[in-house]
Design brief:
By secondary structure, the chain is of the alpha/beta class. 34% of the residues lie in helices and 16% in strands. The chain is built from eleven helices and twelve strands. Helix 1 packs across helix 11 and helix 5 packs across helix 8. The longest helix is centred in the middle third of the chain and has 18 residues. The chain starts with 11 loop residues before the first strand and ends in a 14-residue tail after the last helix. The N terminus and C terminus are likely disordered.
């Protein structure tokens, strides 16, 4: 979705640099706030993209003519995620829009109406809303739609164990050896429980791990997806049909979405994480929402962790939007 060709600004706009994690968070919050939110991918230009989110001369042209036109007729509300979007939301605020920035913008929060940041980032302030993990669209309705879109997975023996495979990051390594351990432990659980496996790679998964997944001989009934060569990505359906979840710890977004289901979540090598994401993993362990994955891991009672609706309600309250307000009721800015 993008700004319409006629130049008319949507009343609620989600801005990002197009990176999947940023776009997903901005749009999830925008859609939770308004029924007709639109997403827009920014096209950052030099030299302003190097300085964002700091202001600099001529920065109304930082994202091309479509965004420059938007400044003349801004939306009532803009939600941005990521460093480039933080400049865009600052510019829109200066032209009358109310703005919410997701993730720590690395500047004082006073430049935005509200900043939404993960607890593990440590950002605090009078206009800062914190949350556990990240924003996303996963709730009961989203999961039900994902099951309807991929009914074939229902034929797999229960319990169905979805294995969400990430990749290496600056906070932990992940290669073929770690992948083999992940599948061994998840496979042992499936054998013991008489269930099946659903394994899905992500955009972070290294090619060597994708190759290992293609060569994998599952010990139980299974479905797997390594990349687009295997057809459409079944991630949403696997998440929705899962009775149990096993996943790597490298992605806060992936962990947040796994924990938004009603399935127990088992995390591969959670204590191998470093840095700020380790604080998120430790918090999930402390509240009992996840447990370490090993061959002897047993299912446990789990409650879904869903922050998007709570954050949206707090944004509504702080900006005076009212509970459940539809997009059409937002002022024209």
């Amino acid at each position: 979705m993008s700004i319409p060709a006629d130049g008319a600004a949507p009343r609620t706009l989600a801005l990002s640099d197009g990176r999947a994690g940023n776009a997903r968070q901005a749009l999830a919050l925008a859609q939770a706030l308004a029924l007709a939110a639109a997403g827009h991918v920014l096209e950052p230009r030099a030299p302003w993209r190097w300085l964002a989110p700091r202001r600099s001369p001529g920065d109304r042209h930082a994202f091309g003519p479509a965004f420059s036109d938007l400044l003349s007729a801004p939306p009532a509300l803009a939600v941005g995620c990521g460093r480039q979007a933080a400049l865009a939301t600052r510019l829109l605020r200066g032209h009358g829009a109310r703005v919410v920035q997701v993730l720590d913008p690395r500047l004082p929060p006073r430049h935005w109406d509200l900043v939404v940041a993960p607890e593990h980032d440590g950002l605090r302030g009078d206009n800062v809303i914190t949350l556990a993990g990240s924003l996303h669209p996963v709730d009961d309705a989203w999961l039900a739609e994902a099951r309807r879109a991929l009914p074939a997975l229902a034929a797999l023996p229960a319990p169905r164990i979805a294995v969400l495979v990430g990749g290496p990051s600056g906070h932990a390594g992940f290669g073929v050896e770690e992948f083999d351990t992940l599948l061994r432990d998840a496979g042992a659980m499936a054998l013991r429980e008489g269930g099946s496996l659903m394994v899905v790679a992500s955009r972070r998964t290294p090619d060597a791990v994708r190759a290992a997944l293609r060569a994998w001989s599952p010990p139980v009934p299974a479905r797997s997806w390594a990349d687009a060569g295997d057809g459409a990505n079944p991630y949403a359906g696997m998440l929705a049909w899962a009775d149990l979840l096993a996943c790597t710890a490298d992605s806060v977004n992936m962990l947040s979405e796994a924990c938004a289901t009603r399935a127990p979540v088992f995390v591969h090598r959670p204590t191998a994480m470093r840095g700020r994401p380790r604080r998120f993993v430790d918090a999930l362990l402390a509240r009992g929402r996840i447990r370490p994955l090993d061959a002897a891991a047993m299912p446990f009672e789990a409650l879904p962790l869903r922050e998007t609706a709570r954050v949206a309600a707090e944004v509504r309250a702080r900006l005076g939007l009212g509970p459940g307000i539809p997009d059409a009721a937002l002022h024209d800015g």
